[in-house]
Specification:
The chain is α/β, with parallel strands linked by helices and 236 residues long. It has 10 helices and 6 strands; from the N terminus they run E-H-H-H-H-H-E-H-E-H-H-E-H-E-H-E. It is globular.
Length: 236
């Protein structure tokens, strides 16, 4: 691709810049696995459920989507619910506790290819932003020593404060482009989640790049990616 055609790159975080998608997967699996076992639900949580119902979505949307797949109806609750609460918000907060425990214990390092691409783009004057459904984006970027690269971070907390619809709606990506003062046609979206590439496609951005970290190239293309790579270093 020719980066001269674009002025900004809008990166998802988990699975694109850092391998924290794996941490999220483990946290969701632990939380939902224990929840289903306690309720005596026969159909267990499996890895495919993460990609189908959870990946890339705001936390509570992911909880709601998975529960619907199992025919489980819980009260919505509030974001202030304790992690022990049997509510949508409570389960989301419970998952976040597990995520933070894993992150604190194991830490995180950015993908080397992603670091190289971000550094190269910044050096040539292309603006960069993080657009993540996670409310942990700043903490993850600090842990990976990448936060100084990104003057604009639109994460789950920012989206909630600004009443922005989460992915697969394009609102968070559009907000990041506005903050960078770059027309969407001159911005590139880089995503590993189906909901994320769908958001980039529906937002009519200049280019949507799917990053295949396990969901599959065909699925990314079907949901709106223009091209698919296995590692961001391929884009240098």
């Amino acid at each position: 691709m020719d980066w001269n055609d674009y002025d900004a790159a809008l990166f998802d975080l988990d699975g694109v810049i850092t391998p924290t998608a794996d941490v999220h997967m483990r946290a969701w699996a632990q939380m939902f696995g224990e929840f289903l076992a306690n309720r005596g639900v026969a159909e267990p949580y499996v890895d495919a459920d993460y990609f189908t119902y959870v990946d890339g979505k705001p936390r509570y949307d992911g909880v709601r989507s998975f529960l619907e797949s199992r025919g489980i109806d819980l009260p919505e609750g509030k974001p202030t619910d304790e992690p022990t609460a049997e509510t949508v918000a409570g389960l989301g907060n419970r998952k976040n506790v597990v995520f933070e425990q894993i992150l604190e214990t194991e830490g995180v390092e950015a993908y080397p290819g992603s670091v190289k691409l971000v550094q190269a783009l910044v050096d040539r004057g292309i603006q960069v932003a993080i657009v993540s459904s996670s409310r942990n984006a700043p903490a993850v970027l600090r842990a990976a020593e990448m936060i100084d690269y990104f003057p604009v971070i639109v994460d789950g907390r920012v989206a909630a404060e600004r009443y922005l619809a989460g992915k697969p709606a394009p609102d968070t990506f559009l907000d990041a482009a506005r903050q960078l003062d770059v027309p969407k046609e001159r911005a590139v979206v880089l995503e590993d989640a189906l909901s994320g590439v769908a958001a980039g496609h529906s937002g009519d951005f200049g280019l949507v790049i799917g990053v295949n970290r396990g969901v599959g190239a065909d699925a990314l293309l079907e949901h709106g990616a223009d091209i698919v790579v296995d590692d961001l270093e391929e884009l240098l």
